[in-house]
Design goal:
Blueprint (H helix, E strand, L loop, with lengths): L2 E4 L2 E4 L3 H8 L6 H12 L9 H11 L6 E5 L2 E5 L1 H4 L3 H7 L10 E3 L9 H9 L13 H11 L2 H13 L6 H10 L3 H14 L6 H6 L2 H9 L9 H16 L10 H10 L16 H5 L10 H10 L4 H19 L13 H7 L1 E7 L5 E3 L9 E7 L2 E7 L14 E13 L5 E6 L3 E6 L3 E6 L8 E8 L28
Main location: nucleus
Organism: Patiria miniata (Bat star)
Keywords: Developmental protein, Differentiation, Nucleus, Spermatogenesis
């Protein structure tokens, strides 16, 4: 009788007498025989205890045959130099003329408060196993321990986990840890997450946890996904500062704007940014693009009532916008051109606005405010985003410039993400200049068929050339003594 060994089990083969008995069986037994033969031919697999687990349990957990004892944070580990030398920290300690190279006991100094016993246990244990399961809630202490022990593989695994689990609850602590331990990619991912999600996922807890430096960086970013207009950026900055000044506030988030308004409007020492408490926030409010707030009457009055921003800031902005309006009125400004506006200037000066497209259907809208005679209609239909220079086709409540051609400089982004703010779909258009005749329209972005809703649309645009950047006029300017004349006067 023959047999074979498979997966640790012995299987007995069929002998000659058994084969003769099979031939005598009737036809009805054939199906059962085939199934039985199939079972006999298929080796039964039994999962063996892996070498990695055996090493981890026997050597790390039980400490068998240990040749070095590590003391740290009030705990001792019975370990093995040959495994510890996978860590650059221990490899350098045990080599050369260091006194620790011949010691049997090592007392580790742990200067990093982020490292706890559980994190150090995971870091040391990773030297005895092939893989490590990391929980997002514990990844920062483990990253700290891995950085101390210079465990590059574990550091990379921590970075991957952090990138995959950025959320309103983790983005601040992840950014702090990534900055401290040199994970530049994770740091950038945290900033990118905030740029894309901050305005849409505002929480009092998130605003309270954000540092002033990080918040200012995001507010000043040209990639900030603004919903709806620049006035909403100003309102968020105001809420952020209010929460920093009143850290004990724990009211309903729906009332946060109202409470912030009441606080600043009743601020007794005077205009907030001119007081001692307000000086540290001057640079933050400088990041708000006031030129795109004062183009709306209600918004400009709201800012003045808040008693935050000094008039010395506002008056030059009003003057600049008034002169820009005069240039358009007199035909000296037809809108931005690539020669006059660099990408860097566009990023600093452009209007930032956005909208949420809830489902796949047709939308048409405009962002309100004084747009210097450029009534731009935005249409989303059949996954296309379309710009239209409106002069007569649709009702217009504001003044419309009737120049034959007007320029608009813009960049468009669309994005959809899950409940944690992780990108499901995104598309970004290039920086472009369109020259539009009256009532002309143009497709500015085409979205793929697999786009997921709700979809966020972000638009950065300039409808005018900022003051002082206009191209030289073709005709000399009129002497000051020459009277202004219009066609109706002739």
């Amino acid at each position: 009788m023959g047999g074979y060994l498979s997966a640790g089990r012995w299987f007995v083969g069929l002998g000659e007498s058994s084969q003769k008995r099979k031939k005598k069986r009737g036809r009805d037994d054939s199906d059962d025989d085939s199934e039985e033969d199939e079972i006999m031919r298929t080796p039964q697999r039994k999962k063996l205890k892996s070498t990695s687990k055996y090493i981890y349990d026997t050597l790390f957990v039980n400490g068998e045959n240990s040749d070095i004892t590590i003391y740290a944070l009030g705990k001792e580990w019975y370990l093995h130099k040959i495994y510890l030398c996978q860590s650059s920290y221990f490899a350098s300690m045990f080599s050369g003329s260091w006194k620790e190279s011949n010691l049997k006991e090592i007392i580790m100094d742990i200067p990093d408060n982020n490292i706890d016993i559980a994190a150090l246990e995971v870091a040391l244990g990773s030297l005895y196993r092939d893989d490590v399961m990391l929980e997002p809630a514990k990844v920062v202490p483990i990253l700290a321990a891995a950085s101390l022990l210079q465990l590059d593989g574990l550091i990379c695994q921590c970075a991957d986990i952090m990138t995959e689990t950025i959320s309103t609850k983790t983005v601040c602590c992840y950014h702090t840890a990534a900055s401290a331990y040199g994970l530049e990619l994770v740091t950038r991912n945290c900033v990118n997450w905030l740029e894309q999600n901050l305005m849409d996922m505002q929480r009092a807890s998130l605003l309270q946890e954000l540092s002033l430096e990080l918040f200012e960086k995001v507010i000043r970013s040209p990639n900030l996904f603004v919903l709806q207009v620049e006035m909403d950026v100003y309102s968020m900055v105001k809420k952020f500062v209010f929460l920093k000044l009143m850290p004990s506030w724990n009211g309903n988030f729906k009332n946060l704007s109202k409470d912030a308004d009441a606080f600043f409007r009743a601020y007794k020492p005077g205009l907030f940014l001119q007081t001692e408490r307000g000086k540290k926030y001057v640079s933050l409010f400088r990041g708000v693009r006031l030129q795109h707030i004062i183009n709306d009457l209600a918004a400009s009055k709201h800012v003045e009532k808040d008693h935050i921003i000094p008039k010395e800031w506002l008056l030059p902005v009003y003057q600049q916008q008034w002169q820009c309006m005069l240039g358009l009125e007199q035909g000296l400004n037809q809108g931005p051109t690539e020669e006059a506006i660099s990408p860097e200037v566009f990023d600093q000066q452009s209007l930032r606005c956005g909208r949420v497209i809830a489902r796949e259907t047709d939308y048409c809208w405009r962002w309100t405010g004084y747009n210097y005679g450029m009534d731009v209609l935005f249409t989303f239909a059949n996954r296309l985003l379309i710009f239209r220079r409106n002069t007569a086709t649709h009702p217009v409540v504001a003044s419309v410039n009737l120049q034959n051609s007007r320029n608009i400089m813009f960049r468009v982004r669309v994005i959809s993400y899950d409940s944690q703010g992780h990108v499901l779909y995104q598309k970004k258009g290039d920086l472009k200049v369109l020259s539009l005749s009256k009532d002309e329209e143009a497709v500015v972005l085409t979205n793929d068929k697999h786009v997921q809703f709700p979809l966020r649309i972000s638009v950065n645009m300039l409808c005018t050339t900022p003051l002082g950047m206009e191209e030289p006029a073709e005709e000399p300017a009129r002497p000051p003594s020459q009277p202004i004349m219009r066609e109706e006067d002739l």
